[in-house]
Amino acid sequence: MAERDRERLHALWDEVLESQRWSEGTMVERFEAAWRAWNGLEAVAVSSWSGGASAALEYAGVRGEAVLCPSNTFMATPLVTRAAGADIAFVDCNREDLCMSFEDFEAQVHRHHPRAAPFRAPAMRSTMYRASCLTHAIRDEPRECWLCIPRK
């Protein structure tokens, strides 16, 4: 950390400590407002993957809708999807890389007309390029993201 930032950081920490609100406090509200202003989009701060996934699925309106889920995934993915009220349709994974099969993904899209599907960006890179018609941006950052499929 740059020395020039130390005093400001400690002042912010002191503000949180003095407020006795570790979450959902004014600091979080200020962060969300700054994010919203910078990006021109709504924002919600979360403290975990499951919190972010829950918020994304709620925002996407998946309740009662189909959501595709890879058959080879961390158990939290289908659990948070089920908790959001979605109907889960599993997509087969490839033997060679254990990633979602693009061929089965296409078949499941046609069969279930899903509202969303999770992707792990680096593992799905080649598949994502082939599926680029479904999303606006493809990034190389190692993170999971939710692809929301717009209705026609």
Describe the model.
The N and C termini lie far apart (48 Å). The strands form two sheets. A two-stranded parallel sheet has the order 1-2. With 152 residues, it is of the alpha+beta class. Strand 1, helix 4 and strand 2 (87-91) form a beta-alpha-beta unit. It is elongated and about 55 Å long. It is built from six helices and four strands. The protein has two domains: 3-39, no CATH class; 49-148, Aspartate Aminotransferase, domain 2, CATH 3.40.640.10.
Q: What's the CATH architecture of the largest domain? A: 3-Layer(aba) Sandwich
What is the terminal-to-terminal distance?
48 Å
The CATH topology of the largest domain corresponds to: Aspartate Aminotransferase, domain 2
Helix content: 40-55%
The overall pLDDT, averaged over residues, is 78
Largest sheet: 2 strands, parallel
In N-to-C order, the SSE pattern is HHHEHEHEHE
Total tally of structural domains = 2
Number of strands: 4
CATH top level of the largest domain is Alpha Beta
Please identify the structural class as seen in this structure. alpha+beta
Order of strands across the widest beta sheet? 1-2
Q: Tell me the β content.
A: 5-15%
Low-pLDDT windows of residues: 121-144
Q: Tell me the number of helical segments per DSSP (H or I, 4 or more residues long).
A: 6
- How would you describe the shape? elongated
Computed Rg: 19 Å
Assembly type of the chains comes to single chain
In CATH, the homologous superfamily of the largest domain goes by the name Type I PLP-dependent aspartate aminotransferase-like (Major domain)
